[in-house]
Amino acid sequence: MEILVLAEHRRGELREVSLEMLSKAHEIAEKIGAETTAVLLGSGVKDFADTLANYANKVLLIDDVKLENFNAESYQKVLSALIKERNPAMTMIGHSAFGMDLAPALAVELDLPLATDCIDLEVEGSSVLALRQIYSGKVNVKVSFCGAEKCMVTMRASACPIAEGMQLGGAIETIDSPLTEDIDYKVFAGYEEAAAGDVDITVADILVGVGRGIGDPDNIEMIEELAKAIGGVVACSRPVVDKKWLPKDRQVGTSGKTVKPKLYLAVGISGAFQHLAGMSGSDLIIAINKDPKAPIFAAAQYGIVADLFKVVPALKDKINELK
Predict the structure, then answer these.
(1) Whole-angstrom Cα distance, residue 233 to residue 205?
(2) 64: alpha, beta or left, given left = phi > 0 and alpha = psi -120 to 50?
(3) Residue 27 CA to chain centroid, in angstroms?
(4) CATH homologous superfamily for the domain 2-174
(5) Which phi and psi angles does 216 have, rounded to 5°?
(6) Average pLDDT, the chain
């Protein structure tokens, strides 16, 4: 029995969701008596295979210049052939722009049940269940595959932790590409660069999240000074974006981005479930809010019940003093 995990890479970097999925796949595989196999498609990506081998029992490497950049059509042709040949119990793909383009068409072609945007997987008896969120994150549901022998899931980035210290030493097997000709009806055109000065909150180690408690857009400068003092980046909850105080790419939550920083400092954020869904995987959560009953405190390891306009300047000054 086998669990296939499609490794995702972009612009010369292996995406963390690949290792997150392999860590979860290994956990499930141990419970159902299966092995994990990473599938790596690309051109000149042998170094990625070496990394994946620590997290998988086997790495299947298909090195083909036609796979240098992601193309859902070419990936589908390759994966379809692999799945038909190997008959895995489960195929896992990241719920990214790539995965959302690829997985539905692949599942339809192979007539596989597909659960998308999963935040976890569980084993009950001999069955694997997928955990998903519905109603904009209000409800978590367990999804079964109705006894199907094979299934497919897409996993939300940052939903599962990367296992520490894994050294499975999986064998790397290079196999021939089934692609025989270029796909000219759908081509990779290039990446569109973010505007100068923009930041990617999904890769920041330290985030200072600000909510409606900030009261006025002029007060965001105070949050930016705190973020600068601790070497972090400013993020926000949806109300701040709705008021156009910060751009959409800074929003954390179900309608924004999922983040997993080493430190998430929530300032003036009440902690609506939509926001918590986007940052609950943070290593350390500290909350500052004057309402002791704010839901954010249930998710935080440390909390300060006080006026943020008194705490933030004092905290910034103390950090600068220590530095």
Answers:
(1) 9
(2) beta
(3) 18
(4) HUPs (3.40.50.620)
(5) -150, 140
(6) 93
CA–CA separation, 144 and 141 (whole Å): 10
The position carrying tokens 């000054």 is 317
Q: What is the pLDDT of residues 40-80, one digit of tens each?
A: 999 999 999 999 999 999 999 999 999 999 999 999 999 99
Measured in whole angstroms, the distance separating CA 299 from the mean position of its chain's CA atoms is 19
- At 116, is the secondary structure helix, strand, or coil? strand
CA 216 to mean position of chain CA atoms: 31
Instruction: Tell me the CA end-to-end span of the chain in Å, nearest whole number.
Output: 54
Residues contacting 11, CB < 8 A, separation 6+: 191
pLDDT at 212: 94
Alpha carbons 233 and 225: distance in angstroms, whole number: 10
CB 288 within 8 A of CB 199: no
Tell me if residue 68 falls in helix, strand or coil.
Answer: coil
Return residue ranges of the chain for CATH 3.40.50.620.
Answer: 2-174
Q: How far is Cα 297 from Cα 312, in angstroms, rounded to an integer?
A: 17
Question: What whole-number distance in Å separates Cα of residue 93 and Cα of residue 72?
Answer: 12
* Alpha-carbon distance values, 46 to 51, 91, 187 (Å): 9, 22, 24
Q: Which CATH superfamily is domain 201-322 in?
A: TPP-binding domain (3.40.50.1220)
Answer yes or no: are the C-beta atoms of 117 and 143 closer than 8 Å: no
Residue 34: how many CB atoms within 10 A of its CB? 19
**pTM (two decimals):** 0.81
Residue that is written with structure tokens 């839901």 in the block = 295
Q: Which residues of the chain have pLDDT under 50?
A: none
d(CA 3, CA 33): 10
3-state secondary structure of 74: helix
